[in-house]
Design goal:
5 helices; 35% helix; alpha+beta; 181 residues; single chain
Amino acid sequence: MKALAGVLCLPVLLVSAQAEPVRFEVTHRTVRQWSAPPEAVLWHVRQPGSLRELLPGLRRIEPLSEGVWLWETETRVPFSAPQRNHFRVRLLTEGDSLAIWRSVSEEDPDWMECRARLRRTGPAQVRLELEFRIRLERPSLAAVHWLAPVLGKRFLQERIQERLVEMVETFLERLEKRLRT
């Protein structure tokens, strides 16, 4: 009887979840140190072509207007078409130690900030402090995935966080390999 009640409640959950807007916010901070010239590390963090090659899930990066770039990411999602996000970002720099890719508008439903700070720790040593923040807003859980109303926001938030950590760590591994060549 409980199983039947659960099945009968599913349409109600799906309909009610469609009405409420949902926001996901995730952050990942990490630090790496390498034997490499800081200029080389900074170059890879600032160059769109290098980022596209090194950052997994970054499907496309192209200029939109003077100083504004489109980052299109793609994530494979079980039982659904790939999830695509579109970030309109601008590169902000501070000397040779800071690069920030940040969304142009705080109001964008796909918002991100990637902050890379470099510190020279020796003649050919560099420390990279990397922080990635992402905020995704959707009109409802059902707009995220057809099973999202059943899985719940917390479950999805955890998956998005896992994916961000995986993406950043893979980026750093690829960057380290590139710096060694």
